[in-house]
Request: fold
Amino acid sequence: MREEIHVSRFMLHVSQPMKVAFVTPWYGPDLPGGAETEVRQTAEHLARAGLEVEVLTTCIKDLYADWGRNDHRPGVEVINGVVVRRFPVGKRDRTAFDQVNWRLMNNLPITAGQEKTYIEEMFRVPALYEYIEGHKEEYVFFFIPYLFATTYYGAQICPERSWIIPCLHDESYARLGLYRKVLPRVRGLVLNAEAERQLVAKFFGQDDRQRRVVVGMGVGTDFPYDAGRFRRKYNLDAPFVLYAGRREGGKNTPLLLDYWRRYGRPDVKLVLIGSGEVVVPAGLEDRVVDLGFVSLQDKYDTYAAATVLCQPSLHESFSIVIMESWLTGRPVLVHGDCAVTREHCQEANGGLYFTDYEEFAATLDYLLDHPATADLMGRQGRQYVLANFRWEVIVERYKRLIEM
Reply:
């Protein structure tokens, strides 16, 4: 994994250790999602390493809640050793926001006025910004991810002390002019892959004065797994392809199911685990096994038992499930139009990628028909994760950023 640090135009000198603040729209111990997992685990591991870490967030429960409702009480609590400060959200015009967001979700153009509506009516949390303004000398700030109001407004308050962890995708939101006011102007960007750094340059220009550091995400590497235990529990002896994660259009699961409908090997199953609703197409009931949301241990056992993990998503800035599959020694199959997951496969030599049905069928046939090569890819993927994404490695990278 390549890591480069560019000379910054900001010079921040401190005489005592700074507190670290992660600023994120919602926070909790069990929230699904890549950015949610990244901020929670990073904060906890930095706290365990002896840093003074806080999370500044709203009272919104999660991504799927009403963003104008306070599900949590405002105030301070400690969660797994991390101080969490919650700030209340106010009234918003949800209808106005949804109208603009619908256009963005469907890649339709919007006006400058609609951009303003989008960010102002996302959610309103003025007390959070007042706190940042009043305490900006105490912290180094990490805002995650790029597209929420907490980052847009918060990172503009004290850009010389602010880093953004963008979790950037090639999507309509990244093309909005409002983000060009924020991302290129903060102290630095913390990126999850080289491909994400290239995407930053595409959308926001190349700037050697700003630190843009590929850090990656930390991954727990010492979990137990047992493929035989999975097969006994679920009475599944056939080879299978695994999909793990949220089952929704944004993760490209409809495409995977369509490809599976066309794929002609009845001896191979498709196993689905994760949250969200999924509709198995008629005629595939015997070839698709939907286990729904499973325990952590079952998830790890399922990885180990799979022939291959398929990650069809086009919009990933890291992909924890790929790393977890590799840690159990299993190869992965990813969509070739997702630059980040393709990069991981190429760097690790731990899997293959496809861009259409014919490539999907051919690469899957190869992995099924060459088990020794599939096993080798899985082992190589495991070594890639251990070398680059163990928590000891990630914590040291963050310490370097904080000390800059």
